[in-house]
Amino acid sequence: xxxxxxxxRGRGWRMTAQxxxxxxxxxxxxxxxxxxxxxxxxxxxxxxxxxxxVYNTLGELVSLGEVLEVxxxxxxxxxxxxxHRPHHHLVCxxxxxxxxxHPTGNPMSxxxxxxxxxxxxxxxxxxxxxxxxxxxxx
Amino acid sequence: xxxxxxxxRGRGWRMTAQxxxxxxxxxxxxxxxxxxxxxxxxxxxxxxxxxxxVYNTLGELVSLGEVLEVxxxxxxxxxxxxxHRPHHHLVCxxxxxxxxxHPTGNPMSxxxxxxxxxxxxxxxxxxxxxxxxxxxxx
DNA sequence: GCTTGACTTGGACAATGTCCAGCATGGGGC
DNA sequence: GCCCCATGCTGGACATTGTCCAAGTCAAGC
Lengths: 138, 138
Ligand SMILES: [Mn+2]
Ligand SMILES: [Mn+2]
Ligand SMILES: [Zn+2]
Ligand SMILES: [Zn+2]
Known about the structure:
- The structure is a homodimer.
- With about 140 residues, chain A is α+β, with helices and mostly antiparallel strands.
- Chain A folds into 2 domains: about 1-80, Arc Repressor Mutant, subunit A, CATH 1.10.10.10; about 90-135, Dna Ligase, domain 1, CATH 3.30.1490.190.
- Chain A has 5 helices and 6 strands.
- In chain A, the strands form 2 sheets. Chain A has a 3-stranded antiparallel sheet.
- In chain A, a hairpin with a 7-residue loop joins strand 2 and strand 3.
- The model of chain A has no long low-confidence stretch (mean pLDDT about 95).
- The interface of A and B includes residues 104 and 112 of A.
- Bound molecules: manganese (II) ion (2 copies) and zinc ion (ZN) (2 copies).
- One manganese (II) ion binds near residues 87, 89 and 100 of chain B.
- One zinc ion binds near residues 92, 97, 132, 134 and 135 of chain B.
- Chain A binds a DNA duplex (30 and 30 nucleotides) through helix 4.
């Protein structure tokens, strides 16, 4: 993640304790936290950080293309630091667990012109749903 | 849509003015209204209908499998009366317009076992994004 | 027509997210 | 190293979307 901090500094981002903490919280694989989850973990490291700052920082990271917004459920948006390797998501319908997945094939080529209604289609997002091993056991 | 009302009556649904109006509002193709949009249109036909009833009725229609919930944007859930023909969605990134689409191929078979993490995968949802002809003109 | 249980209502409450005025501070210029 | 001020942060008010409940209303079976 210091990669990330370096890249951001290079882009003229002013480095503050708050932004550093948010970036730290977002490190790792299969990480898809809500804004309030990010805030809770940030508070553990920097007690006085505000909700507004977390929202602002996440929004900036999204604008910079360093973090993706995903809405797998109908609840809060989730923030995904895995922005540099295209992927899709596999979501547990019961507990909400999310894994990054890399399907074969290109769903883009599965949409014939006759089904494009004149749109310029630029992106496709695939969400698989099912039951995770943990929930299946219970 | 009287099909729908018949089916519901057959299932023991008590028929009320409110429910009839909600069902009427949901008629048609490529219809993907938010709950508050449904409420606004329902109020035009039945001024005293409450928000709570619209939410309740939509929730029941979803439980009965007559209407689908879709969350194409990160805002409000949308309600889709096209529940009896499986389909995916094409969304305008600018104005939010939504079309039903029927891609060829089966994305389910594009997810190898090694990418399933032990999940029992039961469903896949594909969202295409782009710019609609209207927004492209502007 | 009654009766009754299911339905509706309005408003309180919760969760998520946005906005703003005023204070704090990172970091470039000296 | 120190100052300055544009940029960032804060707490709280406000907005949007959705849930819940007690009390009143009504559809439909008798
Ligand atoms: Mn991801
Ligand atoms: Mn649809
Ligand atoms: Zn699970
Ligand atoms: Zn458009």
